[in-house]
Amino acid sequence: MDALEPLLASTFTVAIAEIGDKTQLLALILAARFSHIKGSKTAIILGIFLSTLLNHFSAAWLGNWAIGLISPEHARYLVAASFFAIALWVLVPDKVDCEESRFYKMGPFIATFILFFIAEMGDKTQIATVVLAAKYDDLALVVMGTTLGMLLANAPVVMAGNFSADKLPLTLIHRGCAVLFALLGAATLMF
Fold first, then answer.
1. Quick one: CA torsion of 26, 30, 33, 35, rounded to 10 degrees?
2. What PANTHER family does this protein's entry cite (predicted)?
3. CA–CA separation, 129 vs 131, rounded Å?
4. CA dist., res. 95 & res. 85, Å (int)
5. Please, which pLDDT band fits residue 12 given cuts at 50, 70 and 90?
6. Which of 51-60, 69-78, 148-157, 161-170 has the lowest mean pLDDT?
């Protein structure tokens, strides 16, 4: 089980953190925008997958590299503090601009790939990926986990198409996610 911990922790953490996040709202907008195009749901999900894979690989590599620059004891405190900071950050709801994007004319796959990559820059889930990669020494499992977490949160939104995030108890979800990150921070300090 210990060997799969980076995968499971990364998947669960990002899937929960992504609920109500701006990229999930973006997935909803893209699904609605391209609903008239046959195969658009598959193209959007593929765009989310590849964009997240590239973005989160870069973030995980950075986290893995950066943690090697400091002592293990300082690294542990830095990772724990980062988890606590993300716990507070997830309590602030995201919003996404619904205006027409110039990327829409490029089709559902390219538009999704570009818009998701841009939206993930500096996003909570990207920062979480940096921190998870710093905590766990398995870059591949962290990237696989965070990418899977993004797909678990976003693919159902794309498939439903008319799904509304307003129907979810987002405040409760954000609070639960904040508790999860705080627990990860506490676990980092204890173990």
1. -140
2. TRANSMEMBRANE PROTEIN 165, TRANSMEMBRANE PROTEIN HTP-1 RELATED
3. 5
4. 20
5. very high
6. 161-170
Is the full-model pTM beyond 0.70? yes
**What Å distances lie between residue 42 and 75, 103, 156, CA to CA?**
40, 18, 12
Helices 139-160 and 22-33 pack at an angle, to 10 degrees, of 40
Dist CA 151 CA 142 (whole Å): 14
CA 120, distance to chain mean position in Å, is 7
Q: How far is CA 186 from the centre of its chain?
A: 21
Of residues 27, 60, 44, 50, the one with CA closest to residue 126: 60
d(CA 88, CA 31): 30
| 116: nearest Cα among 91, 134, 96, 99 | 96
Q: What is the pLDDT of residues 56-99, one digit of tens each?
A: 999 999 988 988 898 888 888 888 898 898 888 878 765 655 55
In the chain, domain spans: 2-190
- Cβ 131 vs Cβ 14: under 8 Å: no
Q: Is the separation of the CB atoms in 188 and 76 below 8 Å? A: yes
Asked if 110 and 128 touch (Cβ cutoff 8 Å), the reply is no
